[in-house]
Amino acid sequence: MLLFSGDSAFRRLVEAMQRRGVRVFVVSTVANRPMTAADELRRQADAFIDLADLRREIGRRIPSAL
After folding, report:
1. Cβ distance 60 to 38 under 8 Å?
2. DSSP code at position 34
3. 41: exposed, middle or buried (C-beta count within 10 Å: 0-12, 13-18, 19+)?
4. Which tens digit of pLDDT belongs to each residue from 7-44?
5. What are the strands of the beta sheet with 25-28, ordered from one edge?
6. 10 Å Cβ neighbour count for 24?
7. pLDDT greater at residue 3 or residue 56
8. pLDDT of amino acid 44
9. Binning pLDDT at 50, 70 and 90, where does residue 49 land?
10. pLDDT of 2
11. Among 14, 23, 36, 49, which residue carries the largest CB count within 10 Å?
12. Cα within 13 Å of Cα(22), Cβ side
C-alpha cells in the first residue's frame, strides 16, 4: 500500500494493515521545515519514500532560459 501522507494520525491504520500482511510505503517529505512527515509514522512504515528524492528521479527539468 502507498500512503501519500505524513500525518501521524495514520500510524494506527498502517499498523492494522501490517497485521494483515500488507506492506506499507509512506510517501512524504522531511525536507520542509517544519517536517511534514511524522517520526512515528515513518518508523511504523515498512519503507519511507521522501518526495525530495522522487523529484530528482521523476521530476521535470526546467530549462534555464525561463
Report:
1. no
2. S
3. buried
4. 999 999 999 999 999 999 999 988 766 667 899 999 99
5. 2-3, 25-28, 47-50
6. 20
7. 3
8. 96
9. very high
10. 95
11. 14
12. 12
Q: Is the CB of residue 7 less than 8 Å from the CB of residue 39? A: no
Q: Which residues contact 62 (CB under 8 A, 6 or more apart)?
A: none
* Mean pLDDT score, 55-61: 75
Name residue 12's amino acid.
R
Mean pLDDT, range 37-61, rounded to an integer: 87
> Positive or negative, the Cα torsion across 54, 59, 63, 66?
negative
Say how many C-beta atoms besides its own lie within 10 A of residue 28's C-beta: 22
Contact 6, 50 (CB under 8 A): no
Cα-to-chain-centroid distance, residue 27: 2
Angle at 13 between CA 12 and CA 15, to 5 degrees: 60
